[in-house]
Specification:
Largest sheet: 7 strands, mixed
Mean pLDDT: 92
Number of strands: 23
Structural class: alpha+beta
Distance between the termini: 59 Å
Shape: globular
Oligomer: single chain
Strand order of the largest sheet: 17-18-16-15-21-22-23
Amino acid sequence: MKYILALDAGTTSVRAVLYDVKTGTPVHIVQQEVGQSFPQPGWVEQDANEIFYKSAYVLNSCVSFAGAENIAGIGITNQRETVVLWNRKTGEPVCPAIVWQCRRTSGYCAEIPADMREKIKKKTGLIPDAYFSASKIRWCLDNVPAARKLYREGNLCAGTVDSYLVFKLTEGKAFATDCTNASRTMLFDIHTLRWDKELLDYFGIGEEILPELRPSDARMGETTFGGLRIPVAGVAGDQQAALFGQACLSRGDCKITYGTGLFMLFNTGETCVSSESGLLTTVGYSLEKKTVYALEGSAFNAGSSVQWLRDNLGFIRSSGESEELALTVPDTGGVCFVPAFTGLGAPHWRSDARGLLTGITRGTGTAHIVRAVLESIAYGARELSDCMQKDSGICLREIRCDGGASANNFLMQFQADLLGITVNRPAVRESTSLGAALLCACSLGIIGEEEVLSLRKSEKIFRPSENRENFETHYRNYQLAVKRALLN
């Protein structure tokens, strides 16, 4: 039997998942946590060497389990926007990786003039922000002497985590990224699928330090395990990989990943839809013969709100207890929660907004607050879905869910009731790594795009209740609470 090995290099951990790709079933998983450092308020960094060494460890563990001769290929998915700069000759990082969450370049981005902001949005589909990679690379060139020296000498590489891992795994023979990761840099024209010279000139970044652009199903190179050469093929940013892993391959298909944050991607087909509602336009996935676009909305805090209940307030001992406690009360008793711990993402894009808990009375108990926190996650998805349908003119038919919080039956049922459509939970909830494995299998000719659809199996489908009037009333109350949070 030939397996596909998926490497998922996330923000807090790296994991390798071994798949029987003919059935889409994971057969072995190895995971290692990756640390973060916070040298100044708002700064978030990681050790790029740690990312690679722990990636190598989890890959080696899976190869040892299956045997190198039984691995057909390795696919990669990764945290997006995070930037690594390294020496082209040695492969050594020249500074810590600047993580997507890092806000050190907020002031720089705020000073981008209006005409350039409009050009950035038109070309890249992104709203100029410190979230994306361009200003992070510029900061390194301005503040890291070793990076400037290598830049002048023509020996600097700069890229997202996928390109760094591809470079290291292929021993420097391949320096490449795929279009989904490139589309998160604020340097990539999503219409031409090329690095954009005007944007490169504006940020003062030479194209020669950036990776070669390839489709998501491209062969990147080869790596060696146990003396055997294994293809590295199939790369996508984590949210786009989840879109592919959830088989959201048709126009109007939509997935939500309920993780630390909430990420919603809506397939708009081969049409690039510009958002007028504060959403992002991005490459959904790119294959050799076509490029599929998506609208994306993200809420910065989702699962992190449940962690707050557990770790900061001590209301629950585990995330799983939140469902049981929420079901002990018929509603929130008028309590409403806005999860703006680190500001509000789409469609508001207000980093200065802060969390808000309203409607508390003498009768408010722990269960009401826990339920309000869970409901707030669903309300965030409702905000995004309304914007997506307005921008695209496409009616949402179904939500395909994944991520840790998708295991919460109360939340998934509430989501279905609030949206008025079914929420479909897959049998395999490792959608991100599965997407990388499927892209790898497509690249190697093991399966075709049409077979991806047949591999997705549902574990549970949540259908909306018939009476939805109360849900609309509760949602309007949430919208009022958001307005108050934006006034803080």
